[in-house]
Design brief:
The protein is an alpha/beta fold. The protein has 2 domains: about 90 residues, Arc Repressor Mutant, subunit A, CATH 1.10.10; about 200 residues, 3-Layer(aba) Sandwich (D-Maltodextrin-Binding Protein, domain 2). The chain is built from 12 helices and 11 strands. Strands 3, 4, 5, 6, 9, 10 and 11 form a 7-stranded mixed β-sheet that branches. Strands 1-2 form a two-stranded antiparallel ribbon. The longest helix has about 30 residues. The chain is rod-shaped, with a radius of gyration of 32 Å. The chain starts with a helix and ends in an 8-residue tail after the last helix. The C terminus is likely disordered.
Length: about 300
């Protein structure tokens, strides 16, 4: 039978100290227990390891050989434990995050900033992409935590609400809708070609669910910034997060058009299903949860 590590430590100490009692004291066990453990080790290995006498405990020739090998085993185990501790420390000092563009551009920087003020040695990597890709990265363990704005189911993922966002229909100041006071109806909006994000983005998914019969887009772009720029240039209207257009609305570069649609959506943190978040990922989620209650800009 394979000897246990504590028995090997006891044997090594007996060889170093020349006393079973002193070895037992150093390990924090009673001498009778140490004697029993040493006898069990000898039976398992089939050799006598220690001569016990009035003047102390002395290793037998077989005991010397076994003790040297035991010392090497214990050194290897100590190296294994230290290596694992280093790996754990490296993991605890690094956080990999992926976020959809709205979250990455308008919410995640303040969350990460608060976390790093509490943990200045933490290295955080943020990947910015659409919600569909965020989900894939989390499932593939390429990141520790993700943030999405997609409204649908998230198979294979656990999730938690971190904020509520609202989408707004916006146009350039010269557009005929800019002076409209009566809310636009869903059929009217569905008949209008819009500047849209690509499929797989949370903004596009939310709009597709709200307007399943919408006509093809006037222009399809891969970032919120590009969509916003196209609307400011007068290409066509767009539906965008109020987080992304708040400054433009305040400064008159864009005008919000009332619409008879509830375009609120939940922004969620996601991580692999069935797992419990620990370490920096759990801490960032806690920060996001605290901040969400004070993010007035996302309220309808």
């Amino acid at each position: 039978m394979t000897p246990d590590l504590e028995s090997l430590r006891l044997l090594v100490l007996v060889g170093e100290l020349g006393s079973l009692g002193r070895a037992a004291d150093q390990l924090g066990i009673a001498q009778p227990s140490a004697s029993k453990r040493l006898s069990t080790l000898e039976r398992r290995l089939g050799v006598v390891l220690v001569d016990r006498g009035r003047r102390g405990s002395v290793l037998t020739p077989a005991g010397v050989v076994v003790t040297e090998r035991a010392r090497r085993v214990l050194d290897e185990v100590a190296g294994l434990v230290e290596g694992a501790r280093a790996l754990r420390s490296a993991q605890e000092a690094e956080l990999r995050v992926a976020a959809s563009m709205t979250v990455a551009e308008h919410l995640a920087p303040s969350w990460i900033g608060e976390l790093r003020r509490a943990r200045p040695d933490l290295r955080v990597g943020l990947r910015v992409t659409n919600s569909e890709t965020v989900g894939t990265l989390v499932r593939d363990a390429a990141v520790d935590l993700g943030f999405v704005e997609a409204p649908g189911a998230l198979p294979g993922l656990s999730s938690r609400k971190v904020a509520v966002d609202r989408l707004a229909l916006v146009v350039a100041p010269g557009h005929p809708w800019s002076r409209r006071r009566r809310p636009l109806t869903p059929p009217e909006l569905a008949r209008t070609p819009l500047v849209m994000r690509e499929r797989g983005s949370g903004t596009r998914d939310t709009l597709d669910r709200a307007l399943p019969d919408a006509c093809p887009p006037a222009l399809e772009l891969g970032s919120t910034t590009a969509v916003r720029g196209a609307v400011v240039a007068g290409v066509a209207p767009a539906v965008l997060s109020v987080l992304a257009v708040a400054v433009d609305l305040a400064e008159g570069r864009l005008v919000e058009v009332p619409v008879e649609l509830d375009l609120r959506r939940v922004l969620r943190a996601v991580w692999p299903g069935g797992r419990r978040l620990v370490g920096p990922a759990a801490e960032l989620l806690a920060v996001a949860g605290r901040r969400s209650s004070t993010t007035a800009a996302v309220q309808p």
